[in-house]
Amino acid sequence: MRASKRTMSRLVLMLCCVNLLLPEPVLWAAQQPEMPAVERLDVALSPQGTLQGALVTPQGTPVDHARVMIVQGPERKIDLATDREGRFESGTLPAGIHVVAAAGCVKVCRVWAPGTAPPTAGRGVLLVADGAAVRGQRDWYQWVSEHYILFVCAVTTAVVVPIAVIDANRRSPASP
């Protein structure tokens, strides 16, 4: 009984130490992802009624074969891909409010029918890919904050298993 009481007190002490090592957001709340900035602009459809645009990096290099989404309302969604020069063109679109998104860039466009756009309306949409993306490199703090239950289970297992093994080895064998 005394050995199990000692084991329990060690376990509680270890869990308290692990609790002190965890970052604060892990303990209290998950961090909310940042929403991309949304830009609104007027765009005139081409004479054929299509929406034209281009996707480039922050340095101005075209982004080829990237997915572009055009959404109007809850039911109308168009998926496109850019060509080798980073350009895209939709099929015929109705005038109205459309959301155009690609590579972390989101723009809300007031799309005008051919010949009805105000003089300040652009002839297409220029999307600049989000340059903050770093592929394959994540901070350990971010991983822990996203998977805190798994992290706590792994640390607890790493503490409890050795204590249980040591405690089991200390017990004297039962006499026959």
Summary, kept brief:
With 176 residues, the chain is an alpha/beta fold. The protein is 31% helix and 29% strand.
Description of the structure:
The chain has 176 residues and is of the alpha/beta class. It has two domains: 2-30 and 142-159, no CATH class; 38-128, Immunoglobulin-like (Sandwich). It is built from four helices and eight strands; from the N terminus they run H-H-E-E-E-E-E-E-E-E-H-H. The strands form two sheets. The chain has a five-stranded mixed beta sheet, with no helix packed on it. It has a three-stranded mixed beta sheet with strand order 5-2-8, with no helix packed on it. A hairpin with a 2-residue loop joins strand 6 and strand 7 (105-112). Helix 1 (2-21) runs antiparallel to helix 4 (148-170). The longest helix is centred in the last third of the chain and has 23 residues, at 148-170. The protein is rod-shaped, with a radius of gyration of 29 Å. The two termini are 21 Å apart. The relative contact order is 0.20. The model has no long low-confidence stretch (mean pLDDT 79).
What attributes characterize this protein structure?
176 residues; alpha/beta; Immunoglobulin-like; 2 domains; five-stranded mixed β-sheet
Low-confidence stretches: none
- How many domains make up the 3D coordinates? 2
**Can you give the helix content as a percent range?**
25-40%
CATH superfamily of the largest domain: Carboxypeptidase-like, regulatory domain
User: How confident is the prediction overall: mean pLDDT?
Assistant: 79
Class based on secondary structure composition and strand pairing: alpha/beta
How many helices? Answer: 4
Number of strands: 8
- The first-level CATH class name of the largest domain: Mainly Beta
Assembly state: single chain
CA-based shape:
rod-shaped
